[in-house]
Amino acid sequence: MKNLKPKDFFMKNSVMLAAALTAAAAAVLDYAFRVSHVYIDTATFNGLSMVLLWAAILNALALTAMYVIKANGICLRGGRLQQRKGFIVFYGICLSATAFFVIYDIVNAVIAGSETIPVAIRFLKESLPYVISVFTIVLLTFAFPHIKRKNTRRIVSGFVAAGVLVSAVLYLYPCYPYKLTSDPMVIDSGENYSVVFATNDKGTGYVQYEYGGESYTVYDQDGGRKNGDSKIHTVTVPKEHLNSNRYRVGSKRVIDELSYGGRSGKEVVSDYYEFSAPESNEQKYLTVSDWHTHLDKAYDAAEYAGDYDGIILLGDPAPGLMFEDEIKEYIVEFGGELSKGEMPVIYVRGNHETRGKMAAELPDYLGLDSFYYTAQYGDYGFIVLDSGEDKEDSHPEYGGMVDYGQYRKSMVEWMKTLPESGSKVIALVHSHEICIEENLSSQAYGELKRLNVNQIICGHTHTCDFFENNGINVYIDGGHSGGTFIISKLSLTESGYSLEAWDNTGEKVFEENLTW
Predict the structure, then answer these.
(1) Global pTM?
(2) What local confidence, expressed as pLDDT, does residue 75 receive?
(3) How many angstroms separate the CA atoms of 51 and 63, rounded?
(4) Which of 143, 320, 466, 505 is 20 to 30 A off residue 123, Cα-Cα?
(5) pLDDT tens digits, residue range 96-126?
(6) Phi, psi of 187, rounded to the nearest 5 degrees
(7) Phi and psi (nearest 5°) for 156?
């Protein structure tokens, strides 16, 4: 019997194929976790992450080529190529590289953290059809011809044929039910309401209600064309039409939208929602900040806050906005779940909603013309501000895609146009600095004083804190920190207001009573 050496085991066809597939999987995972590449480049040098990605891709191609050489017994002058020392040494180097890239991917996942892993999974799901197609082609081209047993060949052929057939059917005819995925979120945009809701697939959206003896069906549309290419549906409704009124939302699935015609699917309609905006002298608002995908903890904390008349979302729902589903899950469905579609939501943009390719689409999804505006409920006014990003525009995290320095200048100029009012005024902003530029921050605080702002409510630092800054009271809402989540409630009365906070275990962590 021939004495087996380690190389005899590692040079088997099945082992070489497994090594090639592992190397390919490592390259795919590296691509999926590219959202964390900026941290690698920042710690080393710009471009290292892409060098490693291409090295992983080339390593996978090299192992695939070596498998093909071994499986087909390719020969050169002087004997089989796979028996030569240089081939064996290179194969060993590629195996070592594969081990390195597997470890590198694990480290990459740790660097990314628990909040970013879902983003990588979404990247993976997005590219999965292409990856599976490539893997299948490689297997059928190079591995299938070497399967000697007829039954095994038939089984493999059957699985591939069934996979192609099922994929074709699912592409042409979605086989999962169409449904609304949450209650709607009614966002106060200053002048109107934006009724925002979501479905589990793409379709058109509309809101139905009666007002002044007339029935209305208002669609999510642009220039007369219904929007049917989104899971998020945004309908603008005049405030007077919805206040103290009832409405319902509906959607019709769009399977195929063509130049001439198209194919539609099931239509779904909600029950009626009884909507009311705060108008009395006593009003209560649930304030939530920095939930960073930790929805369950935020829901748990909200249970202890009791009843409320409105919602204030202070930003930072996720690490960034790369996908429509992130806006859908962490903003639209979250706001709908908290408000039950029955009360207004004031949305304040955080710095993490300014990142990612979907960040530019967020105003359209939420029906907001601007992220700085004013809202009024009875005697109480709110000035909503947008602090933008928390670093200089040139920071590598932004990839050269931001211009918030100019944006904040425009916001401060807008603040100067606001008239003083006799209302009791609260300012809402993600970061209490308002602007990272000291001169703009000073101007913004000066304008808030001119506008008789009594209180700033914000988030950003993941702490629950109360202090005075530039002569104005500042309350930091809390949000997610470590294993806990803090949520707050703002209660307004004619004589003053109070701030209370609870964590997700029900412990009351803050309470303060103040006068106007």
Answers:
(1) 0.87
(2) 67
(3) 18
(4) 143
(5) 999 999 999 888 888 777 788 888 888 888 8
(6) -90, 130
(7) -60, -45
